[in-house]
């Protein structure tokens, strides 16, 4: 009995409102119950849930709480639908509304493609869509039309806001201002050992000069190398500043005399050198163009959102639908 009462409550509330038909008015543009139902597509949603989780389906359709949840979902969809209608109107105000003929041609071509790929007649496709819970073929066409109009409105508005390209002058100015960003430091392939014993350091240096392997040196003196690879010039996290002065004035293949810093002794071999420098404008022009274009796109997006927000504030939106489930 309770189940029947809940269903009757839902059906009666929908039938009562169906007489009015218009659920919202956005700047004089009516949103009908049919449009809202197409967007929410509760029928297909419930069919999908029933297939995957019968218990959840039963709770949704046979309890007051379940029906209230479905109602909250539909109200959220209505809010999204109103926003979409507003953006379409925003595009119209900006003079970049998509061409109605192009949208209709797109819908016709999509339907023809579906019919061809599925080898169906329009009547068969209509029945198939109904069985899937997606409404009639005409419902599907209306939904495709609206989705296409909305997506093209977005594309057209953003295209209008992002009209400027990146000029060569802008690229050059950015390069001159951010040269350090494109400067690569010199790199040194170093082998460095550190010990607190001068005699050990002298002996270890001779092994380095002789070309003894790093592993053998480490085993012999029980010392792991402080550096064994490439490091950026003047990286004082790896080597004290005063030692870098000696390294940067050495030629490739040099093993420096043992150097003392405080109570520690350093053995340093400069195995190889890669000279750094600043990349030319030609080398980085495309990279800079992409970066500046991305910045302009971000600025355009912020501008679109801000202007659309202002448009919404000055718009007149009347929601006529009154829920009997959600107060």
TrEMBL record:
Alphabetized Pfam families for the sequence: Rotamase_2, SurA_N_2
Gene3D superfamilies associated with the record: 3.10.50.40, Porin chaperone SurA, peptide-binding domain (1.10.4030.10)
Classification via InterPro entries: PPIase_dom_sf, PPIase_PpiC, PrsA_foldase, Trigger_fact/SurA_dom_sf
Keywords: Signal
Record's signal peptide: 1-18
Domain (PpiC) ranges: 166-285
Name the UniProt record assigns to this protein: PpiC domain-containing protein
């Amino acid at each position: 009995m309770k189940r029947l009462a809940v269903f009757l409550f839902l059906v009666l509330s929908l039938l009562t409102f169906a007489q009015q038909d218009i659920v919202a008015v956005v700047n004089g543009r009516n949103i009908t119950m049919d449009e809202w139902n197409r967007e929410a597509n509760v029928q297909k949603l419930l069919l999908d849930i029933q297939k995957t989780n019968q218990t959840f389906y039963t709770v949704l359709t046979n309890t007051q709480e379940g029906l209230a949840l479905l109602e909250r979902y539909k109200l959220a969809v209505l809010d999204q639908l109103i926003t979409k209608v507003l953006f379409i109107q925003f595009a119209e105000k900006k003079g970049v509304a998509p061409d109605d003929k192009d949208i209709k041609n797109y819908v016709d071509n999509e339907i023809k493609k579906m019919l061809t790929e599925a080898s169906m007649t329009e009547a068969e496709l209509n029945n198939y869509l109904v069985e899937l819970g997606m409404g009639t073929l005409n419902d599907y066409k209306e939904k495709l039309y609206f989705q296409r109009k909305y997506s093209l409105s977005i594309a057209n508005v953003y295209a209008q806001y992002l009209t400027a390209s990146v000029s060569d002058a802008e690229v050059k100015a950015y390069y001159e201002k951010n040269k350090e960003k494109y400067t690569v430091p010199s790199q040194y392939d170093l082998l460095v050992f550190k010990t607190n014993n001068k005699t050990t350091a002298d002996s270890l240096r001779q092994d380095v000069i002789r070309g003894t392997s790093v592993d053998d040196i480490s085993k012999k003196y029980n010392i792991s190398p402080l550096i064994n690879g490439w490091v950026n010039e003047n990286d004082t996290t790896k080597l004290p500043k005063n030692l870098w002065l000696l390294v940067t004035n050495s030629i490739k293949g040099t093993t420096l005399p043992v150097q003392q810093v405080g109570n520690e002794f350093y053995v340093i071999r400069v195995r190889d050198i890669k000279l750094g420098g600043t990349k030319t404008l030609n080398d980085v022009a495309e990279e800079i163009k992409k970066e500046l274009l991305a910045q302009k796109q971000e600025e355009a997006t912020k501008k679109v959102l801000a202007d659309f927000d202002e448009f919404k504030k000055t718009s007149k939106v009347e929601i006529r639908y009154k829920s009997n489930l959600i107060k």
